[in-house]
Amino acid sequence: MDLSVWILVEIYRYVVQNANRATHECPCGFYNHPTRRCICGSYAVQKYISKISGPLLDRIDIHIEVTPVEFNELSSHQSSEKSEAVRERVINARKVQEQRFKKHQHIHSNAQMRARNIQEICIIDEGGRHLLKMAMERLNLSARAYDRILKVARTIADLEGSIEISNEHLAEAIQLRSLDRENWTG
């Protein structure tokens, strides 16, 4: 077995074995719950979260903290975007990416970009650079997180049909790195 395949298999096994840790931020499972109170102390929460290493988290493009949905929200008749519309946006974004990378061997989507491709394709204006610089400094983000944010921002722009990455796309991509935030455990 190739070493890189073996490493990926080991990472997969680690994630599967620790799936419960990945889905709950603390031993009791109620950290940041909207209605239930967490009984864990801040040290216990930090210790529990630190079991997932920073370098492993760095390799995950999107981090989203999900809280339980209340029954009233689930059962409401409020309309939401139809799956067909979302599917169509995704298909269109994938077509844009296929076209973008047709001259690049082994790259078919934004997620597969290397640093050189990111510099060429994920161009942001001065305001975007300032926003990203502030996020990097305030959230103590790594160089790998920087690349991930730019790739996700490019994908958000593609989903919206935008040629350029706007500051809004960048801000949304930064928000999707919630586990990178220093002291997010309070």
Strands, helices and their partners?
Blueprint: H1 3-17, H2 19-23, H3 42-49, H4 54-58, H5 71-75, H6 83-100, H7 115-121, H8 126-138, H9 143-159, H10 167-175
Helix pairs in contact: 8-10, 9-10
3D structure, described in words:
55% of the residues lie in helices and 0% in strands. It is mostly helical.
| Helical amount | 40-55%
Shape: globular
- SSE sequence, one letter per element: HHHHHHHHHH
Which structural class is indicated by helix and strand composition? mainly alpha
Computed Rg: 19 Å
Low-confidence stretches: 182-186
Distance, first to last CA: 43 Å
What is the strand tally? 0
* Sheet with the most strands, sense and barrel status: none
Protein name: Magnesium chelatase, subunit ChlI
Domain Mg chelatase-related protein C-terminal: 81-177
Pfam families: Mg_chelatase (PF01078), Mg_chelatase_C (PF13335)
Organism: Sphingobacterium mizutaii NBRC 14946 = DSM 11724
Outline of this structure?
This protein is mainly alpha-helical and 186 residues long. The protein has helices spanning 3-17, 19-23, 42-49, 54-58, 71-75, 83-100, 115-121, 126-138, 143-159, 167-175.
Features:
186 residues; mainly alpha; 10 helices; 55% helix; globular; disordered C terminus
